[in-house]
Amino acid sequence: MRVRLTINGEARQLEVDPRQSLLDVLRETLDLTGTKKGCNQGACGACTILLDGQRVLSCLTLAVMHEGARVTTIEGLAKGEELHPLQAAFIEHDGFQCGYCTPGQIMSGVGCIAEGHACSAQEIRFWMSGNICRCGAYPGIVAAIADAAAKSGR
Questions:
Q1: Residue 105 binned pLDDT confidence (cut-offs 50, 70, 90)
Q2: Are 8 and 55 part of one and the same domain?
Q3: With bands split at pLDDT 50, 70 and 90, how would you rate the model's confidence at 2?
Q4: Is the dihedral of CA 75, 79, 80, 84 positive or negative?
Q5: Domain holding 46: CATH number?
Q6: Which domain holds residue 32?
């Protein structure tokens, strides 16, 4: 099937298998490998992207369901060499260890801030609970999101 998507600001027209997840289209068709395949069951959050500005687990949605949608992946956050404020905050607050979950954590954090769910550490932990970090970098992740939210005025 043919599907039109705007991915990281670039309009794309793709031929995809109607059974293909958005995650697999991003990784296998478009070589955007920043979005990670963790559990492939929607339980870990490693595949979190923004779909029309909303947090979505890309492993649980079919690409053909999103004709005309705007998709933002971790590769689309920075503006050239300038990191997105949350990317910079993750570095400043050491919000990662092995790094595997980091793209999903950052994408979910961007959504969390945009949704207005970053007013306290407790609220951030609650709204980020779908993103698993096996290394236990949660204190740095929460601090990074809180810092980026404060700097953005949210």
A1: very high
A2: yes
A3: very high
A4: negative
A5: 3.10.20.30
A6: 2-76
